[in-house]
Write a structure and sequence with these properties.
Four copies of one chain form a homotetramer. Chain A is 29% helix and 20% strand. By secondary structure, chain A is an alpha/beta fold. In chain A, the strands form two sheets. A seven-stranded parallel β-sheet of chain A has the order 3-2-1-4-5-7-6. A seven-stranded mixed β-sheet of chain A has the order 9-10-8-11-14-13-12. Chains A, B, C, D: Keywords: Amino-acid biosynthesis, Arginine biosynthesis, Cytoplasm, NADP, Oxidoreductase.
Chain lengths: 346, 346, 346, 346
């Protein structure tokens, strides 16, 4: 059994990691590290774990942890990993980091958008961007994976085939993304209070969301060219789910059948990505609680554009599920282990 | 006091008309016509009207109605107005129709998108598109107004200034719109059931929504050129509200300050349209229950695009409130009569 | 025009006061006092007021305020009124206080349940409990009204007739109340965050909620006897609405018709209380946004109990609407002024 | 591997059965019978099953099914099982029925409350009421189990210890239950539409809900006496979850500690029932998606009553999860097989 440690387990992504790992046939959680709840049982913080996982939250000890765990998931606030990840990495740990810190190749891009110094730039050359559908081979060889952001995951899975084959004008890409509120984390600010969010929606951080450079980095690799996009996130009154509606202009004529072929081929062996047939479109509850990404495609002949709708669960394929998928790859387990069950739909 | 008749009062737009007219200083509801509830008190169908408006629903009598009402609102299913509106119009009624039937100049466009013969094409030359911010003068002289659709209202108010001054490439317009479920009407299909809609979102009718030609008709008038757009509606788990996020490429450089000036000038005398300053952005609860449209503007210098977010309440500015606004104009009342109160926000 | 001041206008009850007073034919808001937002326009704090009410929030000046206002609504945190209300009252102000401070006859009861010294016990003999359906005559003569709590309002309106006529065993009363989240106020704690409240429900403060003694005080007056009840509040994932389901054992046989008569008589002249006929039952959206209370009655012959369901909007009849109703009575205006419009239902 | 057939798989309880059985280590779904979707893949009806379970829905063949399945779950509309269950039972099938048809000992009680003839009264002597915490031994020997209703499950688990030890007056029991909308099933009526349910709550079927006699049957067995209760269900704007708040008068003085001991003892070996300590109380999200029941206890010394709050997921412990638990018992598998994972909480 793989021994797993989770640092920062008590945010929503952390607790989803716990949920998924409880069902993993090859892994067992041995260490739950949470600064806020040291000494408390995890089931006292999260009562849904009563009788299922009652282990105690511990303080971080970077000396002992490498010996206690085969893999460590880190879910720390942005930019705080400098004290945590370098020592663990040096000590030989296999690490999957859920923050943005190790997603970027260029520390300067990180610093421009996150407005803070990069906490451990020396590790960036080793770190691999943890989107399996694009970087499986490199992930398999990595000991440090930067788990992708939720919006980028939905967007990149939605765009990759079209960009890869060069079907679209990469200057024309517009991503209009909508997310449930759990994407903001286990927050206690007025902005994310029930009464301020319920029965309401809005765009935010328009033309300035920090996920933009992450998406552009990966699209540029696929396109072998610098790609710049418009990315607009929106807050939606629900807990889980991301729907990215993506617009791009076709370079040449393409039928829906042709587009479905491109996507069908690109994802034909992928266990977690499903392309809807016949112009049908996904809704987020189809992937709620699961690690799947459902994609619908439309060709708008009137405007010579394609419209892609890409649906994921922001906490699963957008965070914890993808992290477990990366762990499976890095530790040479079955890639779908612990991720094979249906989501909950209703 | 203006005597008002409402035909088809028992849908959600109809019942919003009732709510707004109850508070109108110059109008009184004298006739509620509802095929489904003939003989029932409106407060038995809608208990929130108990003790406030208890009048009985009646059957339609196109002979008597003109004498009983100074203005008639019609909220009938698409394409069914042929038996209702022509006789009332001939009899001298002032009519505001909430269906799509009288929004179009060209019956052929209607027939192409609504896939049915136009119910009364002979009236189209007389009908005026009821968006006051664009057609106030013509509305004032009209006796038949086609009240705009909800998505088109949010979209047109969001785009009109930029299109009018020629600041954007009208071939580049993309409208990503999100709506609460009341836009579907008082429906009892599985698709709009609570369990299928709650905690879920999806795009629908991508590249084929019937509001597309309506938006294009009006933008083409503003642009003095044929405009074709991409329009994508989405269903959001809330009752009221539309947020239209609109993308367009700038023809020339423009600063945010410049864009705010354009919008500020265009709407400076408009009582119901508010442009947010300083890059702040609206959320739909700011307009819930009110006839206002709140607009936020962003200039994305990286992509040379503008992003407009336009928020309305689909039942008010998107339907009943705009209908009352049109009535006020047509009958030479104060334009804000019955529409001056704050929405309910929480 | 009555000049109105609102102290503590920026909580949810305060902003509902603003909404209702904007539509009041005889009152105008002249002073908005808010410690948190001094110098800011109220429409910058609450954008739904843009273009409707743009006045600036001011600091409290207990010397000037009496001359500027004919009536003052105070919506301060519990127990903090000692610095505010006594000076205003001495200066001759007419005050409606939305806190619990002036609801009690006995300061000792207040101190036992609120666990703090009463801020101004010297004013208790003058203060009147502001439930018009029970104390209209006294309210009309008062200059200081303690506006009732939301749960007590729903409960007392639901029970008063049965208790008054002695139809039930007052030792048997059980009140199971459910409330939307706005009852917690404009909070920013984790407990009231969207993700913690959405798709969730729970009981809280069982057998210890501070509204219990308030309900018992008023029932004891009606019963002319000490009444002790079980009161259980619950948090429900919605913004507005209280439903109180009340159980009591009949002293003697009583038919549903008999019970409906008792309630019909008790409330026959009340503009804001409606008894549902024929065993139909109210839902909270029937009163959302309105000052009405809708009551449904059942006689459970199998257990010799009556079950009363009483629905109000916690922010309106449970707070701001009732406060305006009290103002109307205290200032000898039409009691329904500013409260006559329908709620919004959908 | 146990071969499982599900008849009526396409309702919400049916699809939860599919979800849970997909994760069951000892069972595999071999037959999905659905009248409505014959010939369609289950993943075309429920897209969350894409790539996980793509088997085709078949027509019912009562001749073939017994040979194809080791156990059959039936989820048919009330009263329609007469054509289905008797032939399967005679053929030797092990059957767990999710309808109310086989919960009752007395066909006359069923007929009085369900207002239809009992479909197969000859099977009632063999059928066992499928609440494991009360009837494990009999379930283990049964071939036909009537899976309990959702409200009765929450209520009986909440009351059983107190009734069993005789701590409460069984004439005083009041059950105020609140349920999410999925309890109404996969409905397409106006009453359960999103706009009619969202932001709304109400009581319904007061003093007449069909779950009342089911609860009374089981409480009477525990009490060894006829028990009659008041039961009031409420509809809450969320999808999953039941919270039953139960009131009963103590026969003798009892401290909270004493009450916790009674419940702790009664449930000490139960894997799915958890009693909260120290007066803490459960919320439904603690059991969302899981087969657990969480119970909180309060002693109200002022009224000499106990108040029990019992939380379950109506689709899991209230239907599908309990059905799987019964299957495990009937087929001598580990009782927690397929039910051991955490729920999803957020």
């Amino acid at each position: 059994m793989i021994r797993v440690g989770i640092i920062g387990a008590t945010g929503y992504a952390g607790i989803e990691l716990v949920r998924l790992l409880c069902g993993h046939p090859d892994a067992t959680i041995t260490q739950i590290i949470s600064q806020s709840f040291v000494g408390k049982k995890i089931s006292d913080v999260y009562p849904h774990l009563k009788g299922i996982l009652d282990i105690e939250c511990r303080e971080l000890n970077t000396d002992e942890l490498p010996a206690q765990c085969d893999v460590v998931f880190t879910s720390l606030p942005q930019g705080t990993s400098s004290e945590v990840i370098p020592p663990l990495y040096s000590a030989g740990c296999t690490i999957i980091d859920l923050s943005a810190d190790f997603r970027f190749h260029d520390a300067a891009v990180y610093e421009q958008w996150y407005k803070m110094p990069h906490p451990a730039p020396q590790l960036l050359p080793d770190a691999i961007y943890g989107l399996p559908e694009l970087h499986r081979t490199d992930i398999a060889k990595a000991r440090l994976v930067g788990n992708p952001g939720c919006y980028p995951t939905a967007t990149l899975l939605g765009l990759a085939p079209a960009v890869k084959v060069g079907a679209i004008d990469t200057n024309s890409i517009i991503v209009d993304a909508k997310s449930g509120v759990s994407g903001a984390g286990r927050a206690s600010s007025l902005e994310y209070s029930f009464c301020e969010c319920d029965e309401d929606m809005k765009a935010y951080k328009v033309a300035q969301h920090r996920h933009t450079p992450e998406i552009e980095q990966e699209l540029s690799i696929l396109a072998q060219n610098d790609v710049v996009i418009s990315f607009t996130p929106h807050l939606i009154p629900m807990k889980r789910g991301i729907l990215a509606t993506i617009y791009a202009t076709l370079k040449n004529d393409l039928s829906l059948e042709g587009l479905l072929n491109i996507y069908g081929n690109f994802y034909k062996d992928e266990p977690f990505v499903h392309i809807y047939e016949n112009g049908t479109l996904p809704s987020t509850k189809a992937v709620a609680g699961s690690n799947h990404c459902h994609i619908g495609l439309t060709v708008d002949q009137r405007t010579h554009r394609i419209i892609i709708t890409s649906a994921i669960d922001n906490l699963v394929k957008g965070a914890a599920g993808q992290a477990v998928q990366n762990m499976n790859i890095m530790l040479n387990l079955s890639e779908t282990a612990g991720l094979a069950l249906p989501g909950y739909y209703i």
